[in-house]
Amino acid sequence: MQPEPQPKLKTTRVISVAAGRSLYHACRYARPQGGWQSRNGCPPSNVSAPVALNLMVTIQWNRTKTGQDHFAELRNQRFCRWLRTRCEQLGLSVAPHYAYAREKNHVHWLVHVPEQLVEEFKNLVPRWITSLEHKGRGPRKRAENHDPAPDGTVHIEQVRNSVAARKYLLKGIDPEEAFRFGIKVVEPQGTVVGRRTGVSRTLGPTARKKAGYRAQKPFWQRGNGRIIKVSSRIPSGPVHGSKRQP
What we know:
Layout: E1 11-12, H1 17-29, E2 55-60, H2 71-90, E3 98-103, E4 106-111, H3 118-133, E5 154-158, H4 162-169, E6 192-193, E7 197-199, H5 205-211, E8 220-223, E9 226-229, E10 237-239
Antiparallel strand pairs: 1-6, 2-4, 2-5, 3-4, 3-7, 8-9, 9-10
Helix pairs in contact: 1-4, 2-3
């Protein structure tokens, strides 16, 4: 009996408009950090999620022993379970809040971790990577008992400006659509097989709608076949792009 064929995964070279819109609004809905966003035409949303995306995690999969991308398993099987267990132990009520963008050989992950658990989280992420690489091999042991991934595999830093972090996740957007999200410099991020971006349900469209979130008004309008910036928040001038709006 022949094994069933595996579904073909989608391959992308850039972040699409739909995926970019999802990232943009999820990050904008999260509680802002850093302030002064309005100086650059990025005012905060009318309502915010209960927590901020306070950590930026970058994982370089090409530095691991196997080179395999285990981000989905790390996020769902390690992080979410750990967060639920530790919050129950500490009497906290914190659901997973995150947004991510995968790029060639690595991933950028904006995530909320309660302050009481930040140091523990920083210690565990490199060990989660190793535990997933050894999953199914030899005697099973707890993730924290594994050796950490090689130096340089994981970089975790505090988010100081939520707008800058949001734009960093969106730097791989389709160049023709970059102006819609305030991205001035687009950087090619290579080919990605499988899901390129994603956000937690707590920051997704259903959660935003329930909270009464509203998108900011577009700062462009059509004129003579081109898109023209019209908001006083952003310097005027012609911007070329498609006719869709975020």
